[in-house]
Amino acid sequence: MNFHVITLFPDSLSSYLNESILARAIKNKKIKITFYNPRDFAKNKRQVDDRPYGGGPGMVIKAEPVIKAIQKAKGKKKKVKIIFLSPSGKQFDNAYAKKLSKNYKDIIFVAGHYEGIDSRVQKVFKTDEVTIGPYVLTGGELPAMIMIDVIARQVEGVLGDIDSLEENRVSSPEFYTRPESFKYKKKNYKVPKVLLSGNHKDIEEWRRSKK
Predict the structure, then answer these.
(1) Which of 109, 119, 177, 200 has the greatest number of C-beta atoms within 10 Å?
(2) Where are the domains of the chain?
(3) Can you spell out the DSSP letters for the chain?
C-alpha cells in the first residue's frame, strides 16, 4: 500500500516512521510513504499562505500549491482515496481503516496547518473529510500518522501474524507476563489465576468480561 502525505512539515513524522513495526513494513516493502511539500510547488516557496478573506486571525494555506502537490501524488492512478484531515470531518475508526485497506492501494492525506487550507482544494478534488477525535490540533501531521499506523496494520504481512490484530480476536485491556508475582511497597501483585489455568474457554470468558 502506498501512502502519500501532503504537508509543509514532512520531517515532523520521520522519528516515528524510522522505528518499530512501520519501519520494518517500509523496509520489507509492505507499505511505502511519500511526502509532498506544497512549498515545492509554489511560485514563492517562502509564502505558501496568506491572510484569510473576510478577516480573522492566523494564515490560510493557498490552494494552488496544495492542488499541484495532490496532482503529483495522484499521477495517472485511477483509483486513489484523498483524505482531507479536518476537526469537522467524520470520525476515523477501525471499520473505515479496514475498508480503505481492502479497496485502495493509494491513499493521499492532506495535512493542513495554521488556520487551515483554502477550501477550494476540496472543490477541485473529491475528498473524504476525516477527524481522529473531538479536538483541534496544530496541524494534520499527527492525524495522518495515526491513520497510516491504523490502516497499515490491516495490510497483510505488516504485523507478521494476522492474529496480532486485536480486533480479529478476543482480547482485553489487561495484559500480564512473568514474573507471576512481585511486591511493591509491601503489597503483592499477582497474575490472575485464570490466566495460569490453561483453560482457554475460561481465559476467553475472562477477557470478554474485561472489555
Answers:
(1) 109
(2) 2-162, 170-209
(3) -EEEEE-S-GGGGHHHHTSHHHHHHHHTTS-EEEEE-GGGGSSSTT-SEEPPTT--SS-EE-HHHHHHHHHHHHTT-SS-EEEEEEEEEEEP-HHHHHHHHHH-SEEEEE--BTT-B-THHHHHS--EEEESSSS--SBSHHHHHHHHHHHHTTSTTSSSSGGG-GGGS---S----S-SEEEETTEEEE--GGGGS--HHHHHHHHHHT-
Residue bearing the bigger pLDDT, 31 or 168: 31
Superfamily of domain 2-162: SPOUT methyltransferase, trefoil knot domain (3.40.1280.10)
C-alpha cell at 57: 486571525
How much of the chain exceeds pLDDT 70, in percent? Answer: 94
48, amino acid identity: V
Confidence of residue 159 (pLDDT cuts 50, 70, 90): confident
185: left (phi over 0), alpha (psi -120 to 50) or beta: left
| pLDDT value at 161 more than 70 | no
